[in-house]
């Protein structure tokens, strides 16, 4: 199927992804799981959880292979790869790594619809718990599709809370309550937090934000709040029209609402869609995000590193 793993598309914590071709001519993405990672839970999660879904903004699992310890997952092929490669990198000038403001806006509306479907549209609620640009794939029309359900959890539609033995996700996107239960319980609002951090990362990357000397340890959402919200619109640089200015401001405001520290203060994904599709003038300024220290010390058994280091870590910082 993969012609002896000839073309590698990418790699993750649980295995590598290769381009393949089915007998009927369709191209596919083949994720070959590393047998030395995990106890098989990620494979079961992918097969069981994603097979429950059917949505334009969720990647389609076409099948799987299982032979002894050898495990592989077969997905629809996404020609434009992951959203991660479209984050602006200093020194990158490739035209195909550029997304316009309107295009970026439609991508994030699509991701929000996909998450809203996972949270409310399935018979069993699915919490993804690893939302980040690497796990958002783009088809040939740049329609976003949520992928990689290896860390996902199921819960009933009436039960908002899930139990976990330890933190899961990617540093920089993980909600505070995943590390420390004193911030709240792990729920669908944990995905909302990750979504908000992803929006702010893409905004920061697109504007090629460089933090001032001496501010490198500043919590990134604090910095973006001060510099991109509490400023006059005329100070927003690099925008060519009023419409683009409104898109940027709307995405910043939505992102900051999504990363509120208390889960109860974050909007649901249904509300996020309303905010994104509504008027920017109707959006209230969110409270300043504040996460300089935990409410109480984080037990070593919960966090994998000190909370101070986590709180200031941001993917583009």
TrEMBL record:
Protein name: Protein kinase domain-containing protein
Record-linked InterPro entries: Kinase-like_dom_sf, LRK10/LRL21-25-like, Prot_kinase_dom, Protein_kinase_ATP_BS, Ser/Thr_kinase_AS
Highest taxon in the source lineage: Eukaryota
Its membrane topology: Single-pass type I membrane protein
Keyword list, A-Z: ATP-binding, Glycoprotein, Kinase, Membrane, Nucleotide-binding, Serine/threonine-protein kinase, Signal, Transferase, Transmembrane, Transmembrane helix
Annotated residues for binding of ATP: 31
Species this protein is from: Rubroshorea leprosula
Domain (Protein kinase) ranges: 3-291
Pfam assignment, any one: Pkinase
GO terms under cellular component: membrane
Major place of residence: membrane
């Amino acid at each position: 199927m993969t012609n002896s793993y000839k073309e590698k598309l990418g790699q993750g914590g649980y295995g590598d992804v290769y381009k393949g071709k089915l007998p009927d001519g369709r191209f596919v993405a083949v994720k070959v799981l590393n047998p030395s990672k995990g106890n098989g839970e990620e494979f079961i999660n992918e097969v069981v959880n994603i097979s429950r879904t059917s949505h334009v903004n969720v990647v389609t699992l076409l099948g799987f292979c299982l032979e002894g310890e050898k495990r592989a997952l077969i997905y629809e092929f996404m020609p434009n790869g992951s959203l991660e490669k479209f984050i602006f990198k200093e020194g990158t000038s490739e035209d195909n790594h550029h997304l316009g403001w309107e295009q970026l806006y439609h991508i994030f509306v699509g991701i929000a619809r996909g998450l809203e479907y996972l949270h409310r549209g399935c018979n069993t609620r699915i919490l993804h718990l690893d939302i980040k640009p690497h796990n958002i794939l783009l088809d040939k029309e740049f329609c976003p599709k949520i992928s990689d359900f290896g860390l996902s959890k199921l819960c009933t539609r009436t039960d908002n809370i899930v139990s976990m033995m330890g933190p899961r996700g990617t540093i920089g996107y993980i909600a505070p309550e995943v590390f420390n239960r004193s911030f709240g319980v792990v729920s669908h609002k944990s995905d909302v937090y990750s979504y908000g951090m992803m929006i702010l990362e893409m905004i920061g990357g697109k504007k090629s934000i460089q933090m001032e000397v001496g501010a490198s340890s500043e919590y990134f959402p604090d910095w973006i709040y001060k510099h991109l919200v509490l400023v006059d619109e005329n100070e927003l640089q690099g925008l060519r029209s009023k419409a683009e200015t409104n898109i940027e401001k709307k995405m910043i405001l939505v992102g900051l609402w999504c990363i509120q520290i208390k889960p109860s203060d974050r909007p649901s994904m249904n509300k996020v869609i309303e905010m994104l599709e509504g008027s920017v003038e109707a959006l209230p300024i969110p409270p300043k995000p504040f996460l300089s220290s935990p409410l109480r010390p984080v037990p070593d058994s919960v966090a994998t590193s000190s909370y101070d280091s986590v709180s200031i870590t941001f993917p583009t910082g």
